[in-house]
Write a structure and sequence with these properties.
The protein is an all-alpha fold and 107 residues long. The chain contains 4 helices and no strands.
Length: 107
């Protein structure tokens, strides 16, 4: 993938927000279905169908992979940021001229 065809960080951020909203909606819908299933034999059967179970296993696998990737990505980013901060020069404290000449009270 070349630089020009790569999505921008803004595009990635928006996509993350959309996917997060979708995942929360899926969780809510599955939760509602699970709560209703014990009282609805047809729904219980539909939730137990192999295509339904397969799609849930595919989703779980993708989420597990993303979780591992994000753990690594965030850990790597934090390590890189800490190194960059350690190498950055520390600015000298600026003391306003009006406070330099004042005597400090002794305790």
């Amino acid at each position: 993938m070349d630089h020009d065809s790569r999505p921008s960080m803004d595009e990635i951020h928006l996509r993350i927000l959309r996917v997060t909203e979708d995942l929360r909606a899926i969780q809510q819908e599955l939760n509602c279905a699970a709560m209703q299933a014990p009282n609805d034999p047809e729904l219980m059967e539909a939730l137990s169908d192999p295509p339904e179970i397969d799609s849930l296993q595919v989703l779980k696998s993708a989420l597990d992979q993303m979780r591992h990737f994000l753990w690594f990505y965030i850990r790597n980013w934090a390590t890189h940021s800490a190194r960059a901060c350690a190498r950055a020069p520390v600015p000298a404290a600026r003391i306003p001229p009006s406070t330099r000449s004042r005597a400090r009270p002794t305790l």
